[in-house]
Amino acid sequence: MSATIHYMFTQHFEVPAKTAYSWCTSFSAEDFSLINQENAEREIVPLTDEVLILRDRYKTGQGWLIKEKLVHLYPDELMWTSTHLSGPNKHSQFMYKIKAETKQTSYLVFTANYIEDQKNLSGEDVCLLTEKCCSVDSEVWSRLAEALNKQNRKKIKH
């Protein structure tokens, strides 16, 4: 049976909560360039004003890996969810909530319900995988926060 791995972390932003939410949910084909990931492409398929599919393609040694994610936006709550529809993490769900820290700063609460398709993982394997997944996702969000904060500083200067 597959294993469900739960983890969470927070990421600080040097912008107000609404600014952070708007930036984080303005998905584009250029998203991967924000974290210097050159081997990936993104297609956005809008379904409604608050629901979309992200079709991400990653170049691997064996060809292209495609991950489709169903994204639900909840702008009134500064929240969104992403549920994997295909790819190695199929059915995994990630929840994102932006919270105000001060009037000018905010933070992301990232919660993962990651489904690992490997069978018969030991308790130690689950712990190691949890640490790895959390570390990788946290690092991605650290780089995204740097990009957001840098863009915001440029706007303030002009």
Structure described in brief:
With 158 residues, the chain is α+β, with helices and mostly antiparallel strands. Helix content is 27%, strand content 42%. The protein has one domain (3-157): Alpha-D-Glucose-1,6-Bisphosphate, Chain A, domain 4, CATH 3.30.530.20.
Written account of the structure:
This protein is α+β, with helices and mostly antiparallel strands. It has one domain: START domain (Alpha-D-Glucose-1,6-Bisphosphate, Chain A, domain 4). Helices cover 27% and strands 42% of the residues. The chain has two helices and seven strands, in the order E-H-E-E-E-E-E-E-H. The longest helix has 35 residues, at 123-157. The chain is globular.
